[in-house]
Amino acid sequence: MHSGQIYFDYAATTPVEPRVMQAMQPYFQETFGNPSSAHTFGQEADAALEDARAHIARLLNAAPGEILFTSGATESNNLALRGLALAAREVRSATRLVTTPVEHDSVHKTLLDLVQQQGFELEYLQVDSTGRVVPESIQSALTDECALVSVVCANNEIGTLNPLAEIGLHCQAHGIPFHSDAAQAGHLPLNVLDMNVDLLSISGHKLYAPKGVGALFVRSGTDLHSTLTGGSQEFGLRAGTVNTAFAVALAAALEIAQLEGPQLNARWLEMRDQLIRGVLGSIPDAMLTGHPSERLPHHASFVFEGVDSNELLTALDLAGFACSSGSACKTGAPEPSRVLQALGIGPQWTSGSLRITLGRQTEPGHIQRLVKVLPDTVQRLRRVEIPQG
Ligand SMILES: *Cc1c(COP(=O)(O)O)cnc(C)c1O
Predict the structure, then answer these.
(1) SS3 of 196, please?
(2) Ligand 1 atom 14 nearest Cα
(3) Most informative mutation of 107, 203, 337, 338 for ligand 1 (most atoms within 8 A of CB)
(4) Residue 27 contacts residue 52 (beta carbons within 8 Å)
(5) Ligand 1 center to residue 183 CA distance, Å?
(6) What value does the mean pLDDT take over residues 359-377?
(7) CA 201 – CA 207 distance, rounded (Å)
(8) Does residue 72's CB lie within 6 angstroms of at least one atom of ligand 1?
(9) Could you identify the atom of ligand 1 that is nearest to the CA of residue 106?
(10) Helices (H) and strands (E) in the chain — how many of each?
(11) What are 28-59's pLDDT values in tens digits?
(12) What is the Cα–Cα distance from 25 to 249, expressed in whole angstroms?
């Protein structure tokens, strides 16, 4: 399979876990009814759907009525932000959106769209050089004009974790709804009461469930407009027939991730730190991006001065390693990462980013092989300095 390639891109997506596959299997052909139908077929599907909802609610310390199924974190983020913004404007004439400069595109571009198409204003919280929100910077943003605050839980590009509970506490004190994108954080404790969040987005395929399923937690009593028109599924907030099989898969995957997270994280953290030490110890002009300790346990990200990340990824792929540059920047569109720019990293460095993310199939031997190959690969791609004179 993949002729011996080693997968180091679990932050992009994960393979479906066999136990998840098994749990969802009956809902494609046996229990296939439309959960909205009143007959027995529909009732059976609906029972499975509501079981999955209750299951996810329990894992997040929420109520079943606070969990909506979506097609993934992109849709959850769109619904959360558009739904909150439109409701806040209608209910209390609030038109300012508060976020960070290090959000995923599904948050970043949705907020920009609300600015461009709907006349909202945007305000960015301060982040430090590790991409972590400076909690004090929230104080001045929490005015009556503030419609919502959205802060990523764990950054996909640099792995940095944000102090959500502290930020959420400030939001609560001012009655401002607080949303967080937790797509990358499925193996960390996701207790919405401890996190002080009012809305939370999760993604199935980042935690060993299929692509195309996600959920949005919405604290009861939150004003949220529906953004899809159609049926009254999901409490009238997300029109469209729910994919029962995928809802069951998400519940199974989240349970496994939450239950096994502590052991997995301990294993990943050890390999991650071995990797970071190996890379920084053997490659000159290399820098870790993101926070050294307040970061995802399975996530390591670097920049190498004077290296082109697309060339590096191609060379690594040829050498048998599937890695990422961290941002969705595709070959041929060499836009510097806005996340790395927000950290104050210069242009000589931002073009040379590398993200290595670990998963269930990662073994210490994989790390050793990468650490052996990487220094020569990077050095070979360094831009040749033309001597002066
Ligand atoms: C992957 C990801 C998303 C998008 O999730 P999908 O389920 O693929 O739509 C959003 N935010 C972050 C931080 C992500 O890592």
Answers:
(1) coil
(2) 183
(3) 203
(4) no
(5) 5
(6) 98
(7) 13
(8) yes
(9) 10
(10) 12, 12
(11) 999 999 999 999 999 999 999 999 999 999 99
(12) 9
How would you write 149-172 as a 3-class SS string? EECCCECCCCCEECCHHHHHHHHH
Between the CA of residue 269 and those of 22, 357, 371, what are the distances in Å? 29, 11, 16
* pLDDT, tens digit, 9 for 90 and up, residues 133-142: 999 899 999 9
Q: Which of 103, 107, 184, 205 to mutate to test the pocket of ligand 1 (most atoms within 8 A of CB)?
A: 184
Determine the 3-state secondary structure of 386 from DSSP.
coil
Atom of ligand 1 nearest to the CA of 74: 9
Ligand 1 neighbourhood includes 74 CB (under 6 angstroms): yes
The first and second tokens of residue 67, run together, are 């969990």
pLDDT at 248: 98
Cα of 104 from ligand 1 centre, angstroms: 7
pLDDT for 383: 73
Atom of ligand 1 nearest to the CA of 12: 1
Up-side HSE of residue 292: CA atoms within 13 Å toward CB?
A: 5
- Asked if 32 and 246 count as a contact pair (C-beta separation under 8 A), the reply is no
Per-residue pLDDT at 380 exceeds 60 = yes
Q: Is the CB of 73 under 6 A from ligand 1?
A: yes
Q: In sequence order, which ranges of 304-356 are alpha helices (DSSP H)? A: 309-318, 338-342, 347-350
pLDDT bucket at 330, cuts 50 / 70 / 90: low
